[in-house]
Amino acid sequence: MRYTQLSSPDSLGALTVVELNSPRVAPLPTPIKPGTVYLTQWITAIWLTAQTD
User: Fold this and answer.
1) Which uninterrupted H or E stretch holds 3?
2) Superkingdom, according to UniProt (predicted)?
3) What angle do CA 18, 21, 24 make, to 5 degrees?
């Protein structure tokens, strides 16, 4: 069996965690899993704290 490697589109580019949590970027849909919401809240809180320093 042969596997073909699919290439990702270059036009989208990769976003950093800061860019993903930026107000200019639409919020990502959060899957409903235990702990996922808390992780997102922690990342946002850390980013907001870094912005005030």
Assistant:
1) none
2) Bacteria
3) 100
* CA dihedral sign, ordered 33, 21, 16, 26: positive
Q: Are 29 and 52 in contact (CB under 8 A)?
A: no
Task: Please list the rounded mean pLDDT of every run of 10 residues in the chain (53 residues).
Answer: 52 60 61 66 84 68
- DSSP one-letter code for 34: T
| Number of residues in the chain | 53
* Predicted local confidence at residue 45, as pLDDT: 84
Q: Could you tell me the maximum CA-CA distance found in the chain, to the nearest angstrom?
A: 55
* Burial bucket for residue 4 (CB in 10 Å: 0-12, 13-18, 19+): exposed
> Rounded distance, CA 42 to CA 36, Å?
10
